[in-house]
Amino acid sequence: MIPLQRPRLQPHLAAELARHTAGIRQAGPNTATGRAAWHKAVRQKAQLRLLLRQMAPGLERCMYCGDNLGTDIDHFEPIALAPLRTFDWQNHLLACAHCNSNQKRDRFPRDPVTGEHLLVDPSREDPADHLRLYLDSGEYDPLTAKGEATIDVFGLNSRAELVRGRRMMFSVVKALLLTWHAAAPGDDLEYADALGLLHHADVLRAVLRLRRSPGVAEAVLGPDVLLALHQLARAERRFR
């Protein structure tokens, strides 16, 4: 999971979403009216999906697991719990079918004392404040209660394919860095483009963050990969 930038809605789309929200309020906000209105809003959903695909990591990957293709518009706070947020743009994220329908469903844990939600919203906060990814193992370590709940709800460690995928992607990132460095650093950014489109974008971000801890970075990456990483950051603004 990586932080994401949410674009502003175009005025006409924002107005249409507000109109749907008003309709739910008038009909009596509940799960049934929210889901019925969402089911009918075919054109607006298509426009929202396009925006979400543009802000998704890699090649339109799920904003939760980062592995599978993002196919569903997920309501971060579920319709069943907040029908008036059905058309709230700030409540929409792109998810794969597994994360949306098998893992999260209507789960939305809250702190029993404060009532604060306990899932990381990558469009509002930096997941790295709540989750630490260990590159060698491919597993996440929770840093906060939010991190713990997010790992549990999305099965970030219990889904073996995710753990193995992150571990393998770490090898791919290192290999691409070395290949780019050996080919033509500073001139040919084909490999840099490939890095930016990989699934499991959280692996690349964890590697990039290692530059802040040179001693740890050399131990985890090795001196050659670390040198390539520094040169890539100098050559390509988005990786700084």
TrEMBL record:
UniProt GO MF annotations: endonuclease activity
Source lineage? Bacteria, Bacillati, Actinomycetota, Actinomycetes, Kitasatosporales
- Alphabetized CDD domains for the sequence: HNHc
Question: HNH nuclease domain: which residues?
Answer: 47-101
Locate the transmembrane regions by residue number. Answer: none
Q: Which organism is it from?
A: Kitasatospora cinereorecta
Cell inner membrane keyword on record:
no
Keyword annotations for this protein, in alphabetical order, are: Endonuclease, Hydrolase, Nuclease
Q: What is this protein called?
A: HNH endonuclease
* Lineage: superkingdom: Bacteria
